[in-house]
Specification:
27 strands, MutS, DNA mismatch repair protein, Chain A, domain 3, 6 domains, MutS, DNA mismatch repair protein, domain I, Nucleotidyltransferase, domain 5, alpha/beta, about 850 residues, single chain
Length: about 850
């Protein structure tokens, strides 16, 4: 039978009402010194946090599940719940229980979800924590990315593929979209994101503009250059609505909306970002480009470097601006060292300043902010006489905010506590009344000692002592042997086994003074601290500009450090249509080599008119994939303004890098290796341009040999003959038949990775040389991998038999008569063999007469003609 409302306890009635407003969140309900969870929330909390699940009474003959933890452990437990993928609503007591009769008023003061986390334990210093919103428009998709912990707010719109790439690049902690688009979102972007859905009316242009105008206090969005991005604006409006919805009203640190234009950056689709292992490795514990290049000194720099890597520049002037600055920093080593020393002290200025409007900045962080501003002053001085225009520009953007810096240093004590309500935050000499109250509180002990001495002498009780407890405050303690000496005006409060405790009017009067002073001190300190935070609000924008300038400087210093440390050279980036790399090295593999071992360097020339397509053959495990990747990574590094691992590199401006490397399955998505491979290759073929760089590794490996050769062959012909773009292409393959293409296509060149055979062993020399290779050395690789000797011997036998029976390669026939051959991914013989198999399966050999057998054989022979 359902329980009537009147039978529930008032506390549980209040809990039920608040929980109804946040049904999909774990509600942390403050009760006294504990945060409690009830019912299904308690079961979740018990499981995720490893705390005890108990029961408590809820009115007559009813019990509810209960699990709780002390309120001061909130930070510890909160991040565990959020990391486990739960939304958490924090419900606090809104009144002082001492002043209220009956039930205390409570309300949700903050909602924490993966995308709106500001707690330090939930954040990684080197990663942004983006909330993304996706809006499905009529022709385009709109997307917005907002990091509440730094105030960064980006907006973009475009095709499904573009938005997919942005989601891969920004890697948001949470994605929101309209409820009715749930199935569509899953089909388009898969299930790799933590998602939350909102009502459809939130994703409308009128509402989005209204909420954004209100937040930025503008009449239009023209000032941000996004007025024309209707679909993006809808997504941006949804993110702001979501922040308000999750109890985040103080968002003064979100001061701008930044536009992301596809044309501004070198395009890499999500396959390329994955295949080149820019941010994440495809193998466990694998090395990445960001892991190799990131020698930044501040969290802001580390986060910006990630964005520079996934959004390389496409503007030669801006690329050279960065390269010039890096060259200056390498040349001026003393200046660079001084900048590095100051930058190390800055800390996470971006996140600290973002805590000001959220009222989450503690006194110690305020002092960190002051130290960071002191470094800004020094960095400005160091850069003031630099002759590099970009470094000059950065120092001009910096503002030491002298007024607020002086105020912080004058008002906040040198080593303040973490919690403002613990006292000791404000310096002496800031507030006269505060100093007087402190004098009373601190001189109290001396006064009490004086009372003790005075009364001891007056009464002749040598063992008399003054002490304090929470029950009746300060008291005088007298041992039983001296209690007959106690004056009549003392009031007895407690009798112990061997002593008695008394109070006196003078002691009570001073106690009131001391405890009153301590309470007043805390109230005054909090008022002064709040006033300081209010003054800091005015400086949020200039401090954010400081953080952005310092982050850019940090990335440039990182590039300069890498260039010196790893012997990188400045690339020449120009308008040419070729890539010419001398003695190139793979930046990631090079750093992973054992000490003393040198990386085997290689030259690489890709030229639109002379050497457009390179067919690269060579033994498995010889380094084909490494050479392909290093060409793409050197090109990418040049476009982010970094020096590169090569003796020299001339890089023609590249607008797109496509890679199809390895045979990564998407079996969880219901697609085979071959299907994934064809989808990714189709994405390349349909998006190429004259400035594209295409890296293809082992295309066609996921299907039968003849299908694979046919597809690989036709892809090369298409890139060479059937598109006017002539994209620069590196094609590694184990199909040696493709070497024939060099004879019939002028801009196709064969290269191979060299090797040396010593006895029955093979040594990979990892050096590129002209001409094709005729062997894959698969059996040698199997031997190296530790296959049993009898298996290796048998493989060699089979190989000898196949080679002795080998007739003229079908690919040589294709090359000889290309105009008569229609290449197809379907093998014509496959259908014939299928028909033969069906005919044979239908035959019952036990009942077949010799004549019938001859007739059946004749039918099969006819099929083969």
């Amino acid at each position: 039978m359902a329980k009537s409302k009147s039978e529930e306890t008032p506390l549980m009635t209040q809990h039920k009402a608040i929980k109804a407003r946040y049904p999909d969140a774990v509600l942390l309900f403050r009760v006294g010194d504990f945060y409690e969870t009830f019912n299904e929330d308690a079961v979740i909390a018990s499981r995720v946090l490893g705390i005890v699940l108990t029961k408590r009474a809820n009115g007559s003959a009813s019990y509810v599940d209960l699990a709780g933890f002390p309120h001061h452990s909130l930070d510890t437990y909160l991040h565990k719940l959020v990391k486990a993928g739960h939304r958490v609503a924090i419900c606090d007591q809104l009144e002082d229980p001492k002043t209220v009769k009956g039930i205390v008023k409570r309300g949700v003061t903050e909602m924490v979800t993966p995308g709106v986390a500001v707690n330090d334990k939930l954040l990684d210093n080197s990663h942004n924590n983006f909330l993304a919103a996706v809006h499905f428009g009529q022709t385009n998709l709109g997307v917005a990315f907002l990091d509440i912990s730094t105030g960064e707010f980006y907006i973009a719109q475009g095709s499904v593929e573009y938005v997919d790439k942005l989601l891969q690049s920004f890697r948001p902690a949470e994605v929101i979209f309209a409820k009715q688009q749930q199935k569509h979102f899953r089909q388009t972007f898969g299930s790799r994101f933590y998602t939350y859905t909102l009502e459809e009316w939130i994703f409308t242009n009128t509402y989005a503009r209204e909420i954004l105008h209100k937040h930025f206090e503008t009449h239009s969005l023209k000032g941000f250059g996004v007025e024309d991005m209707s679909d993006g604006i809808v997504a941006a409006g949804a993110t702001m609505h979501y922040l308000k919805d999750t109890e985040h009203p103080n968002l003064q640190h979100i001061t701008a909306l930044q536009r992301i234009d596809q044309e501004d950056f070198l395009w890499m689709d999500r396959f390329t970002i994955r295949n080149l292992e820019l941010l994440q490795s495809t193998v466990e514990q694998g090395k990445t480009l960001i892991g190799t290049l990131d020698n930044t000194l501040s969290p802001m720099g580390a986060r910006l470097l990630k964005r520079w890597i996934v959004f390389p520049l496409r503007d030669i002037a801006r690329i050279n601006e960065r390269l010039d600055a890096v060259e200056t920093l390498i040349r001026e080593a003393d200046r660079t060292r001084a900048l590095q020393q100051h930058l190390k002290v800055v800390g996470d200025l971006e996140r600290v300043v973002s805590k000001i409007p959220l009222k989450k900045i503690n006194p110690r962080e305020v002092m960190q902010l002051a130290r960071a501003l002191q470094q800004v002053t020094e960095i400005k001085k160091i850069l003031s006489d630099s002759d590099n225009p970009y470094l000059q520009q950065l120092q001009e953007q910096m503002d030491p905010c002298d007024t607020i810096l002086e105020k912080i240093l004058a008002e906040v004590s040198d080593n303040p506590p973490v919690l403002a309500n613990k006292g000791g935050v404000i310096r002496e000499g800031v507030h006269e009344e505060l100093d007087k109250l402190r004098a009373i509180a601190t001189s109290g002990k001396e006064y009490l000692l004086r009372i003790q001495q005075q009364e001891s002498e007056a009464t002749g009780i040598p063992s008399l002592k003054v002490a304090f407890n929470n029950v009746f405050g300060y008291y005088l303690e007298v041992t039983n042997s001296h209690k007959h000496k106690v004056p009549p005006n003392w009031i007895r409060k407690q009798t112990l086994a061997n002593a008695e405790r008394y109070i006196t009017p003078e002691l009570k009067e001073y106690e009131e003074k001391i405890t009153g002073a301590e309470d007043k001190i805390l109230v005054l300190e909090m008022q002064l601290y709040d006033a300081l935070l209010l003054a800091l609000q005015e400086y949020i924008q200039p401090i954010q500009r400081d953080a952005q300038a310092l982050a850019k400087l940090d990335c440039l210093l990182c590039f300069a450090h890498n260039a010196v440390q790893f012997k990188y050279r400045r690339p020449v980036v120009n308008d040419a249509f070729h890539i010419d790399i001398k003695d190139g090295r793979h930046p990631v593999i090079e750093q992973g080599l054992p000490p003393g071992e040198n990386y085997v360097t290689n030259d690489m020339l890709l030229h639109q008119d002379e050497q457009q397509v390179i067919i690269l053959t060579g033994p498995n495990m010889s380094g084909k994939s490494a050479l392909l990747r290093q060409t793409a990574l050197i090109t990418l590094m040049a476009h982010i303004g970094s020096f590169v691992p090569a003796a020299s590199a001339e890089i023609g401006l590249t607008d797109k890098i496509f890679t199809r490397v390895g045979a990564s399955d998407n079996l969880s998505g219901g697609e085979s290796t071959f299907m994934v491979e064809m989808n990714e290759t189709a994405s390349i073929i349909n998006n190429i341009s004259p400035r594209s760089l295409i890296i293809l590794d082992e295309i066609g490996r996921g299907t039968s040999t003849y299908d694979g050769i046919s597809i690989a062959w036709s892809i090369v012909e298409y890139l060479h003959d059937m598109t006017a773009h002539r994209p620069k292409t590196l094609f590694a393959t184990h199909y040696h038949e493709l070497n024939e293409l060099e004879n019939t296509h002028a801009r196709v060149k064969n290269f191979h990775i060299t090797n040396k055979e010593v006895g029955n062993k093979i040594i990979f020399l990892r050096k590129l040389a002209p001409g094709g290779s005729r062997h894959s050395f698969g059996i040698h690789v199997a031997k190296i991998a530790g296959m049993p000797p009898q298996l290796i011997d048998r493989a060699n036998e089979i190989l000898s038999q196949l080679e002795s029976q080998h007739i003229e390669s079908p690919m040589e026939q294709i090359a000889a008569k290309p105009q008569k051959v229609q290449l197809s991914i379907f093998d014509a013989h496959s259908d014939t063999f299928k028909d033969i198999r069906e005919k044979l399966d239908s035959v019952d050999i036990n009942r077949l007469t010799p004549v019938e057998a001859l007739l059946k054989l004749s039918e099969i022979k006819a099929l083969l003609q």
